[in-house]
Amino acid sequence: MRDASDIGTKRKRDFYDLQHEISGVENGPMKRFLNATDERTPEGRRKKREQERIMQRLADLLPDPVYAHLHHQLGNRLSRAQVKADTALETFQRQLVEIDQAIADIED
After folding, report:
1. Cα gap 108→105, rounded to integer Å
2. Of 9-18, 22-31, 45-54, where does mean pLDDT reach its minimum?
3. What is the end-to-end Cα distance of the chain in Å, rounded?
4. SS3 43
5. Which of 81, 51, 45 has its CA nearest to residue 34?
6. With contact defined as beta carbons under 8 Å apart, do 89 and 96 qualify?
7. Which candidate, 49, 76, 53, 72, places its Cα nearest to that of 62?
8. CA distances from 44 to 19, 24, 37, 40 (A)
9. Where are the domains of the chain?
10. What percent of the chain clears pLDDT 70, i.e. is strictly above it?
11. 101/108 Cα distance (integer angstroms)
């Protein structure tokens, strides 16, 4: 059974590890509290700035009729490709079920 000093020591270590993760300081242990997209980490802040930059660039380009047309065309192509990919996956899933059933029938 743990005593109070063990629990206090673990809490202190957890607190210091969290502070190191927030500040971006490497302290040895793997990250346990924050993931890379958390805005409290340097990596998370960098990713947020990059995403904001991309969104601003898109907002700047969309008023251009040529770019807007190409953007719309690309969106349509991606949607059609997604539908085809989903259809193929459904077909493969059905075929897999049929193959599993055929194998089960052979084994019986």
Report:
1. 5
2. 22-31
3. 54
4. helix
5. 45
6. no
7. 72
8. 15, 10, 4, 7
9. 4-61
10. 76
11. 11
In whole angstroms, give the CA distance from residue 70 to residue 43. Answer: 32
Residues 6+ apart with CB under 8 A from 47: 36, 37
Neighbours of 21 (CB within 10 A): 22
Q: Of the ranges 24-28, 49-53, 102-106, which one carries the lowest mean pLDDT score? A: 24-28
* CA distances, 20 to each of 16, 37, 41 (Å): 6, 16, 10
Q: What is the pLDDT of residue 35?
A: 67
State the alpha helices, DSSP H only, in 1-108.
4-23, 42-61, 65-107
Taking the CA atoms of the chain, what radius of gyration do you get in angstroms? 26
Question: 44 near 36, Cβ under 8 Å?
Answer: yes
Q: Counting every residue, how long is the chain?
A: 108
